[in-house]
Structure formats: C-alpha cells, structure tokens
Amino acid sequence: MNRSTKRFMKEQDGGIAVSVWIASLAMMIGIILSAYLHPAWLLLAAGVSWALVACIPLPYRKYVACYSLISILAGLFFYGYENLHSSEVKPLAEREQSIWIEGVIDSPVRRDGDVARFFVTITSWGENQPNENEHHSLEKVALRVKLASFQEATQIEQWRRGSVIVAPIRLSLPPSARNPHAFDYASYLYWQGVHVTGETSYQAVDMTPAFSLWASFQEWQDSGARRIESLFADPETAGYMKSLLLGLGQEVNPELAAMYSNLGLSHILAISGLHVTLVSSMFMWCLERIGIRRRLAFVVTILFLIGYVFLVGASASAIRSGLMGSVGLLCQVFGKKLDGKDVWAGALILMLMVNPYQLWHVGFQLSFAVTLGLIIFVPYSLHVFVRVPVWIRTLLAVTLSAQLVSFPFLIYHFHLFSPVSWLVNLVVTPILSAIALPFGYVAVVLDFVHPFLAVIPVWMSTAMLKWIHLPLFAIEKMRLPFTYWPHPSWWWLALYTCFLGVLPISWRLGYHRKRDIMLTFVIFLSFIVAARQPFSGVEEVRITFLDVGQGDSIVVEIGDQKVYLMDAGGTMRFPAAEPWMEKRDPFEVGKDVVLPFLMARGIEKIDRVIMTHGDLDHIGGFKSLVPHFSFGEVLVNGTAPSKLEGEIVQLFRQEGVPILTGLPGQSWSDGPGIEWKWLHPGESTFSGNDASVVLQLTAFNKTVLFTGDIEKDGESQLVQNGLTSVDVLKVAHHGSNTSSTEELLAITAPKAAVISAGVKNRYGHPSSEVLHRLKKSGSAVYRTDIHGAITLVITPAGLYWQAQILDT
Fold it and tell me: Where are the bilayer-spanning segments (predicted)?
C-alpha cells in the first residue's frame, strides 16, 4: 500500500470521526437556539438549509442536510422536553397558595441547621384534603422542611431518594437575581426542571420509605462517609476527604471551599476524570493481581465504574467521566480505537438526550469544556517545548490547556480567576492526585480489613493536606491583583471561542513556527487585557444602589479611576438556640450580596469607604469585605462609635487604612466636572441616625444627594446650612416618615428619588406619607424592594437609569 493511499484512508477515518463531533455541535446549536428564539427559527433553518443544499457542490450536500436536520430535530426535542416539564401549580405559587401533595423524593436530603431541602416529584396534588379533587401530574418542586427538634433533624437525615411523602405545602415562586450578575435562584431551578418552591414542617409530613436503587447507593455513600469520619479525627480533614472521595461537596469547611475557589482548585473536589482514571486503574490492578484475565477485567471494571458513578452522586462531571471511561474500556475489550473527540461527542449527545437542560448547568459546562480542551490542545502543546522532559511537558500541557478553556467560564459564572491559578494547579494538583486521593481510597479499603492497617495512609494524607493548605491560605490572603474579573461581554465570549476554535485549525495548516506561536501568545494576551474592559465606562459616573434588603449599600464608580463604597448593609443574626440549629455557612449580606457585586464589576480596590453611621443595617457587611480588598481611606461621622462600628474601625486600622472625618463645606474633586461636598455632620451634638454622613456629588452638572438615615432634626440642620436643588435624592432612612420632610423636598426638588428598603420589611418602609410627599414634589421614585438594584449612570451627555427588575 503506497503512501498516498494510506494518507487517503487516514483522511477518510478522520472524516468519520469529525462527523460525530460536528453532530454534537449541531445538536447543541439546535438546543441553544430553541431556548432563546421563537419556534419560527425552525422553519427559517429548514428554508436556509434547503437553499444551501440546492446551491453547494454535490459532495457536501448530504453533510449540510444531515447537520441541519440534527439541529432542527434537537430544537424540536427541546421544545417537547420543555413542554413536558411545564408547571401546573405555578399559578397557585404566584398567589402563595397552600396545597396537599403526594410525591417521591427526587434528590438527596440536605440538612443545614433547622432546615432540610430536597426535590420532590409530585405524583398527585389537591387544593383541599388528600384524595379530594386530585390532580395527577409529574412536576418537580424544591421543598423546604422546617425542623423543630434535634430528633427531627436526626430522623430527616435518614430519608432517602425514592421514598414517598404526603404533606401540605405552601407554594411560592423562587426569587430571581435582585442585583446585577448575582446568583439567580429562579434560573438555577428552571434548568433543574423546577418552577416553584414549597415549604412545610416536619410534623406535617407523612413519609413512607420505599426501595430504590438511589436509596441503596446513598446508604453506601453514607456508610462510607461515617467510615471516613472515624478514620480522620480532624473534622476539617474528614469533610475534605468526604468531598474528595465521595463527592459530598457540602461537607467541606466553607473557608476551605472558598480558598479552593479563589485559587482555581475547586475542580479537585469534584468527581472528575482524574478520580475515574485513578479508581478504575486501582480496581483493574487488583483484578489482575488475583488472576482475572485482562479482557474480563475490563468488563468487570466497566460495571464497577457504573456503580462508582452512582455511589458518588452521579454529578454531571462524574457521569461524563464514567461514560467516557467505560467507552474507552469497551474499545480495549474489542480491540478498537476511537478518536477522543468521538467519545466526548457521544457522551455529550447521550447526556443531552436524557436532559437537555444540563447544557445550562455550570458543572456540565466546565466538565465537557475542559475535557474537550485537553483532548484538542494537549497533543499540540506537547510540541511546543520539545527540549523539556516529556513528563514536565505533559504536566504543563494539561495545566495550561485546562486553564485556557476554563477561563471564560470562571469569569462569566464566578468573576474569579487568580493570576497564580495555573502555577498553583501545576504544583498542587499532581501532589493531591498522587497522595491525598489514592491514599484516601487505600485507607478506606484497608479499614474494611482492619483499622490498624489504615493508620499510615490516614496519617500521610492528613499531614500532606495540612502542609499544603498552609501556603495556599497564605497565597489567598495576599490579595493578588487581577483576581476579580468584570462580567464579560457577549462579543468577548464569542471572539474568545472563535480564537480557541482557530488554534487547532491553524496548527494543522502549518502555522506553528516560533513566530506563529509568539503571535498566538500576543493575541491571547490581548484577549486577557480586553477581558479587564480597560476602556469601559471611562467617561461616566456609575452609581449602584444595591438591594441589600432592609439596609443601605451604594457603590459609586468614578470612571475607571476611583471607587466609593457607601455602607455595606448588614444581617441581623441571632445565636442559635441549640448547636444543631447552627447553619454551616449562614447568609450574610456583605459576603453574599456586596462582595459578589464588587467582584462582578472587577473591583479590587475601594478608594473611599463611607460609614454613614453605626447601625448594623448600614455597616455590618464591612466585616466580610475587609479581608478581600485593599482600601484607600475610611470616612466616618466623627461621633463616638457604637460597639459594632468600633470593631469594624479596628479591622480597618489593622490593615493600615486611615480613618478620617469631615466638616460641612469641605470638598474634593475626582476629576474635571466631578466634585464631592461634605454637608453633615459638623461639630454638633447629633447622634444616632441624625449623625449620618451626608454627601453631595456633582458629576457633569448633575447633582446627587446621599442622606444616610438622617431624620427630621438633621434635615432641618441641613436646610439651615444651605441646600440647593438636586437631580437625584437618596431618600433617608429607607423612606421612614421621620425623614424626607416637606421642607427638605421643597428646597432640593429632586427629579428622581431612590429608596432602599427590604421586600415586605416589618417596618412598613417606605411610608405612604413619604411616597405621597415625593409624588407631590414631582419626583420619579425608584425602590429596591420593587426594582431590585438600581443603577444611575451619569455621562457628559446626561443620565440614565437601569433597574434589575422592571415594573410589571
């Protein structure tokens, strides 16, 4: 057989591989288009495909027709899947109505403190009593069960997937994101096939255990978790190993999980190809040592992998890894060789056929994207540093390829990518893979034989984790620049995807000389610079009134030069009555609202912090923010600080941040046309709300008045000191009737007013009297309890508003 014939046959084989690969891409395109476009796109696609088939050369017609048909069928499948997962009880949830349900537990039951959460697939429901006017359906609901005692907490942890429950539940709609680029719970549940949430109490639920395959695997998982707890005395290490070995990510200490996330190491704690490769290799090795023939060992290992995937929770990454690993082993059994992209595409098609909504799951996206990146880029990367030993080249190729592909996903979903992530992964991942992971599995297996045999692997993995976590925590505390990334634009994501797609094509075309590689590196750096959005909002002042519930937090961005943070909200927390009621990672507005917003804006330094006064709902969130940013200075009202204010001031002083105050009449400029004035308080006897810092910002001839929680007496002092009309008024004290007097409104005559108040807050803010006075003064009113976060953008051309939630 001559060389040209071999080359032709090789190209034909490549064509077969590419067809499956392109088919998977066509399927994804069809699903995505159906998710965001009107169904009429199907007719348009059919017409365009017919026109292309009629115009293009004959050899390519069948490919265009085939892939177009796949996209159209995928779109039709998505519409059908969406119709099957529509909600019958959503109209009742909009009215927050209570119903009776009978259903099957459809997820692991996760308890956190005095609340347990899980999914229930409703089989029947009624608006009155059970068995009365029943409606039969199959609809998934996110259920929240309130617990009243430690006994209930212990018992509910024994509930298993597949068990039948009957209960009265109060329906509601899941909340959507109330701040820009925040976690959208409603969207998250939608892509889980859930449209409504329900709430009930443990006493009201009648649970009947039922056998299910899921329940058996969960029992084994729980048994393994208990064994790990007995092996590892340190609770933090035990929680880490439960996540590493069994996929129980919720068991990881929150601070440790945050550190892994900040340094780009979260993938280590997720069951992935690394785990599947290691576990299957260890299992195969054991089978061969006891004399089982190699082909039979492959078959047994495939069955073992299926069980392993279920044992560790069957996450998207675990299923993908199990599928690809099983296909690889099958190829070994039959002596076949498949292209890696073929195997990847087959796994993708199969998983999307089961559930197309998975395409919007973050874990699914990262698992498939990174795996594809390794398949495509690692072989090319190995040819770059040819003089470096192969094992180093391989390690570098795997690390850099994974980082290259995961980068857009991380900055889009989490706005987080550490500049040392590639180096940390290069060093830490091999160590954890070679020691902690295998020694953890070995310890668990040896413990079945005799606990003494597990002592050495337990000691080695524990010592190694403690040794490696110390420098990792130190690196995290360094506050490295370019760690928080602004939310990327759609066009940047599209261009970066095209860049990744062109790389292997250009390599195959011969563009891999040294100058070509240097040019590619320069283009990549250009994408990194563009991701920082250096020219975004240069000539604008952006003021965001965050929705922090019943509290205040305002972020003022002066172009790309300076950032002001005026208050940071606060969360009222009461100590748990009993230890079992403590939550692992309780909600805190600074950590869970303000910090994610600042990260999404790519903010890493706050030039001025303004603590208007010492109330918890204004400054409590600063405690969570101090460790994450560098600060220029802190402005306070100059009065005797409250206990909380004193603690926060001390945190700033420990960071070397100067603490300053001001006097009426003082002013400073942040650039041409941008001036701040300190209006209040001065040298007076004001205290409490009336001692709130009041600032006036003039930007491009537009004036904004920030009033904190100032009340009637403080407003009177402001008027006496002299006020002018303003364009925007931040309404004082959340719209309380003790503020926003007619005297103040008559002088300031605001064209627009912003009220920061919590949804259905217990104070009744904003008061009807204040709303009436604002209406009388002709002010347009924006409210965080109605509109979510409110953004005011001031430019030399004027100003405009953006609301997170539009009026309906």
Answer: 12-33, 39-56, 63-81, 263-284, 296-319, 359-378, 390-414, 420-444, 451-470, 490-510, 517-535
The three-state DSSP-derived secondary structure of 356-402 is: HHHHHCHHHHHHHHHHHHHHHHHHHHCCCCCCCCHHHHHHHHHHHHH
User: Can you list the positions of beta strands (E) in 87-163?
Assistant: 98-105, 110-112, 115-126, 135-146
65-108 pLDDT per residue, tens: 888 999 999 999 999 999 999 999 999 999 999 999 999 999 99
Q: Confirm if 109 and 69 have CB atoms less than 8 A apart.
A: no
**pLDDT of residue 6 exceeding 50:** no
According to DSSP, residue 755 is labeled: E
* Beta strands 752-755 and 728-730, pairing class: parallel
Q: Residue type for 184, please?
A: D
CB 34 within 8 A of CB 78: yes
Query: What is the number of alpha carbons within 13 Å of residue 670 lying toward its C-beta?
Result: 23
Phi/psi of residue 75, nearest 5 degrees: -65, -45
Six token digits for residue 42 = 């199907």
Evaluate whether 791 touches 543 at the Cβ level (below 8 Å): yes
What the block records as the tokens of 346 is 């087959």
Please give the C-alpha separations between residue 149 and each of 108, 110, 143, 155, 203, in angstroms, as whole numbers.
21, 16, 19, 10, 10
The single-letter code of the amino acid at 51 is: A
- Answer yes or no: is pLDDT of 16 > 50: no
What's the pTM value of the predicted model, to 2 decimals? 0.92
Interior/surface letters 606-634, b for 16+ CB within 10 angstroms, e for the rest: bbbbbbbbbbbbbbbbbbbbbebbebeeb
Which pair of structure tokens corresponds to residue 368? 């498939």
CA 353 to mean position of chain CA atoms: 25
Q: How far apart are CA 542 and CA 560, in angstroms?
A: 10
Annotate 521-543 with DSSP letters as a single string: HHHHHHHHHHHT-TTTTTT-EEE
* Residues paired with 141 in a beta bridge: 120
CA 741, 747, 749: angle at the middle one, nearest 5? 90
Give the pLDDT confidence of 715-736 residue by residue, as tens digits. 999 998 889 999 999 999 999 9
β-pair partners for 194: 140
Q: Torsion angle of alpha carbons 544, 548, 549, 554, nearest 10°?
A: -40
Beta-carbon count within 10 A of 479 CB: 13
Residues belonging to the chain: 808
